[in-house]
(3R)-3-hydroxyacyl-CoA dehydrogenase
Amino acid sequence: MAALLAGKHEESAATTVAQLGGSGHLSYVGDVSKAADVEQLRKFAVEKLKNAPNVVVNCAGITRDATLLKMSEQSFDEVIAVNLKGVHLVTQAFAREAVANKAPLSIINVSSIIGKVGNFGQTNYAATKAGVIAFTKSAAKELAKKKIRVNTILPGFVETPMTKAMPEDVLKSICAGIPMGRMGHTEEIADGVLFLASDLSSYVTGAQLEITGGLYM
């Protein structure tokens, strides 16, 4: 099955596509916070994939961290635009396409455990991730009878280039608070996405799957 990866940065999107197994995968450069870009993405996907996608994963996200008293309006608006508005625009566009074609669709929205518990210095980010959870529940209720499932993944702390650059003592402190005693692997998040994308979750919609090693359970 061919995959289409959309992102704002051409080089990183192409690199990710190159890492995928199989053939026929595509990349697309666009901004999910802009309706016109998302509409062009929808047209591109339908044209290149020859039909409406049956899985959509909303995982675009940015951070603009600052404490509440120092948070600028721009930092707040930029995070809202990508992390929450982007989920709305992409979900809306591809749900409309699926309904028009009477095609089944699984939409997976990537939130964060921060959307459940909050985090110091991330009022904007936490607000978007909590919003994604509520958005998903509402969309799932609206779309269930149209053969469209909408679910949310809530990752915890995961090993990425960003976290690997953190000081060793900070990483140890984080892991000490995780019941499983370690950070997650990107493959473990991907496995959760795969479950929600597949028929193994055919009776699951409006759900939140926490992949956190037990953090904040």
Observations:
- Strands lie at 4-7, 26-29, 55-58, 105-110, 148-155, 208-211.
- The first helix runs from residue 10 to 19.
